[in-house]
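Lecture notes, unit on protein representations.

Consider one protein chain, 290 amino acids long.
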Amino acid sequence: MGIRLKFNIVLVAVFLAGLALAAWTSHELLQRNAKDEILRNGRLMMETAAAIRGYTISQVRPHLEAQLSRTFLPQTVPAYAATETLGALQKKYPDYGYKEATLNPTNPRNRATDWETDIVTSFRNADATKEIIGERETPTGRSLFIARPIQIGNQDCLVCHSSPAAAPKSMLTLYGEANGFGWKMNEIIGAQVVSVPMSVPVENAKRTFVTFMACLFAVFAVLFIALNLMLNWMIVRPIMTMARSADSVSTGDFAIPEFSERGTKEIATLGAAFNRMRRSLEKAMQMIES
């Protein structure tokens, strides 16, 4: 097995090991970054909903108190305001979603589906849980969701949701008396659920991974060719030339020129030693012949 083949075997083995390590590391890092980006988008939507709710309570509702005594205005309800605002966003970005999923809602559109009911039940069974993050399949692809509990922490909420008798008549006219009542203080009645598509960040991560691995492979290919050229020029070719010279000298042919002592230090030293041996052997042969 020649030195070139041994060198290439070792080089390819090292490259494959490095490629495998780089592939695993970069893939995990890119996927983690993609998921972090998805979580940031989801939490941004969640905080946006919270900001809308807070704005509705502090700056919209107080200006409509007088009118609320005569007519129920759903626009003054924080959940309605957040759902309407983010619903407008969802028209442009249909893969993103926000819902105040409630087990017993006043507005039917807020009624929790089966998987949302499971989330609300989880919050009810574990009061210490403040956030649930998960993934689920949707018709448009895989989606990540972030859910936070909706808990009755304000006595004012019970004015509309304790019993039909206590609720504003205008609200009963709008939504009826069948749902949205019987809520209790500190009860978890639902969950804010934000859904964010995973396809775009994950595809971007995959594209970046493929590009990175292709560039890494291209760099290795260039390095492989360059090292083989250097190996051939600096080591293999001088040694083969020296081998041919040694073969000729061994048969008594001293007409060949001396080996060049230029090049790398090691090859030059070897060439100089070979030339001294050649001259000594030539003189010894001349002495024997005389």
